[in-house]
């Protein structure tokens, strides 16, 4: 029997999350709830200097005054912020020099994900800073990077060892009061990655971190800070999967990128948090603030493949502050079952001759809702600013929705802005055309979806492409060839 | 006392002054309650993010129109489309001016809202249609509460309105500041056809705020062409709320020409209630100075096999601000929908601003929906081409701008009106060109 779109739909609906499992590692977990004492305790636990504690407390005070935003096109039961434990760290925390010393249980976890360290080490020289329940437990290739003067470590380590850098840049792109979740993150962030590329250095390998949520009822608050000094280049990868859980888990990360003059940062994400089951129960709430600052001639490029999470609220943005700065955003967002995604970008043009490109592809199946929300803002000083945006949506089945909310604000007469959006389904004639040439329907759908997302998939670094394909399969098995 | 309190407290006096029976009275009382609760919209509301009413609400507008102010036809002739024969419904300071009007009851009704609300013979139509699709938001409810006068047009089955209908609102400026709230109802039955031109004009520099609501019902296979000419003085502000319900196979097109006024907000809402419906929304905006024009459109595709086409062009000079907020909603049932939306803008000055927010909300899978939005400048090489052929800078720019707006103009189906608008554009661009060469 021929494979039809209905079959695909059925398959998508019944496809359960494959990577749900739970690793039993003794964790050091704080009591639930949030107050100033908890914030102080987190800071004390990590042995942070006074200025850091003060910074967290300031953020906490700001957060208390703020309200949870409601403007996004998503519906969910708001998390109870007093019913979350704000700190959880695997408590065996020795410093490893070689991979053999790592807890075998941990290694097995990563093997299940198909991203074992051994494989990773061999594969194209990817240095992995593993973040498991917020605390970094293994760092490889540190020595190679140290030779070049590149600092790549956990942010808590950076606070201890490079306080001047952290102090100078933390919160400069995403200030504590930026939004509700950024303020929360600033107050309670447990760990994250820190990366510093010195002047003129081209980072010889792709840097990557894997994020996981492992402890039931534990919110994750990652903080990432990437600084590229003048004329440097770095490509940073971030990917994540989470174990199957029934209650909702909160994830509110903050990522700050700083690209100084002539620097380039490429930031790629594959996001595959647990999306909840076919009935829409469980799943991760993903409320992320990601923003990059570009100085003169700098370039920041965001690439993301979003397949997981029950609710996603994420807008990787670029502030094009310097003249000739370039911002790019490439995204594929796949939603299935009851997933909801409200994602997009902000391109703020402040400098002259700044350019930005936005390519966003949304694929909705099941009963999911997929929204693109983007802002292109040209300030009155931004002479000759240029923007091109393209948002395409593909709908599979008639119970899902695709929405586009672009905001375009131009205050300079020399601005050139183009925005295009289309919504369609896989055309019967397209499938017929393929069938006619001996390609069966399943393959045809795969071909079309693949072609639809190709512009974005192509932007992923080679090392990541395999992983991305694997993660996409979970959401759209049978349609990605 | 702010404007909201003033309006709420004037309501009782207003109710007493108009002689109406229970059903309309109930609608009004309910509406004033909604207005009291919601008030004027603020910038905090998503739909009003880019438009603030603060500056225009600071005037102390008089709410009740004074007794009839007469106008000499010669004074205002230029505001009429006078080279062709038309029906005319003319209001002066919110009061009907029988002297300037030409109405009819011959097989169709082209007359007044006040008569329609007061006489029994219009009762069935009023009961069926009045305030049935107007959104119960603050600003529309305010109009409903004070609805007394406006145009009432009823075209029965299988009737082709023999000439276009002009609806013109004059304000004489005899009051220092005046608020007008016209309420129009247009019902076009099966297989009928009508063309309507609407215009608001103030005659002095005194501030005027018009909050107008128009409800249009197009029955099966009806064709309605509606032209809005907004070329008022810079002291006049307009909030124009239009609600359109379309039945199967009907075609309604609304053209909005926004050239004048201080602050203009157009809320244009289409609801497609039948299959094979076509909705056309066209707009040309050419403004300068501190003018502000906001086009807020909604096309709600409810039934399958329908189409909508939106095309808005804008040219913004000096400190002008343009807003386009276009929303297309496609319901789950509305399969095979074709919805197109395009918004093109030209910025002529660094102080001018454009905020564009084209939105798609789609719940059906078998649809073709697209939107496009561009912001750019006049093409330097095209300009050079024209200048190298001896056309002056100003004229060359005007020609390019005219060409930019032309495809919207092309869809105007009354030749005399098209000529008139062409002339308005030439005036607006400060050139003396016959574009019809």
Short description:
The complex is a heterodimer of chains A (481) and B (437). Helices cover 25% and strands 33% of the residues of chain A.
Q: What would you note in describing this structure?
A:
The complex is a heterodimer of chains A (481) and B (437). With 481 residues, chain A is an alpha/beta fold. Chain A has one domain. In chain A, 25% of the residues lie in helices and 33% in strands. Chain A is built from twelve helices and 24 strands. The two termini of chain A are 20 Å apart. The model of chain A is unreliable at 91-97, 118-127, 133-138, 211-218 and 477-481 (pLDDT under 50). With 437 residues, chain B is of the alpha/beta class. Chain B is 23% helix and 37% strand. Chain B has ten helices and 20 strands. Chain B has helices at 3-17, 22-38, 54-57, 73-76, 113-118, 123-129, 138-145, 380-388, 393-409, 415-428, and strands spanning 87-92, 95-96, 109-112, 151-155, 165-171, 178-180, 183-188, 193-202, 208-218, 223-230, 236-246, 251-258, 263-272, 278-287, 292-301, 307-316, 321-330, 338-347, 353-362, 368-376. In chain B, helix 8 (380-388) crosses helix 9 (393-409).
